Amino acid sequence: MGRPFILSPSLLSSDFGRLADELAALEEAGLSWVHWDVMDGAFVPNITFGPPVIKALRKRSKLFFDVHLMIEKPERYLAEFVDAGADLVCVHAEATVHLERTVAEIARLGAKPAVALNPATPLDHMLYLIPQLHMTLIMSVNPGFGGQSFIPFTLPKLRQLAALREEANPEMLIQVDGGVTPDNTTTLVKAGADVLVSGSAFFGFPPYRKRHQAFLKAAGRP
Fold it and tell me: Average pLDDT of each block of 10 consecutive residues along the chain (222 residues)?
């Protein structure tokens, strides 16, 4: 059996006025995950949503809530996001001083822990934590805005992480976020990605079931 493949559409590119409807449409289209881009206007130059929005939508959806915290000092809000219904909480290595403590706290609270790395952040920042992680997120654009182009040098970084995972924690998922389309999905999956985040390249091409199938086909999962 090969590695899993999961598409986690980013709500950053959805219709914010119809979030409940968008989540229902994703379930109807056969998706199992959804990606929440939480931004604070400080760590990244944009502001999106916080725990109250996630909590309200948690009651309306059975999707796996993949919550990506692009916020400074995320350790301040871990309990709020888990209580709101986050199934996985991903924090940036660049945003917290005591990364291991933060990862351990996510697990203690009952969510799956994950760490994100900005494009220029080396893997050294999280190597020792691989055994503790459910997932590592390789950012393939600089976070903050949707619709950006994939940064090519993140591809060898992805391959390096995939090789390191085999020894330290083969069960750890690798997620890629930024400039992901059906056109580069085959390359990313072959390089080691298990979970792909797509925003504008997903929501901008309805119907969602057909678009999901395009990603699955590119990933070799028809």
Answer: 89 96 98 97 94 98 98 98 98 98 98 97 96 98 80 97 97 97 98 97 97 98 81
pTM: 0.96
For residues 114 and 137, the answer to whether their CB atoms sit within 8 Å is yes
Q: Distance (Å, rounded) from C-alpha 123 to C-alpha 121?
A: 7
3 state SS of 181 = coil
Helix (H), strand (E), coil (C) string for 7-70: EEEEHHHCCHHHHHHHHHHHHHCCCCEEEEEEEECCCCCCECCCHHHHHHHHCCCCCEEEEEEE
Grouping H, G, I as helix, E, B as strand and the rest as coil, residue 209 is: helix
Domains, the chain: 6-218 (3.20.20.70)
**Which amino acids are annotated catalytic?**
37, 177
- By CB atoms closer than 10 A (0-12, 13-18, 19+), residue 28 is exposed
d(CA 105, CA 118): 22
55 with 20: CB under 8 angstroms? no
What residues pair up with 135 in beta bridges, in sequence order?
Answer: 114, 173
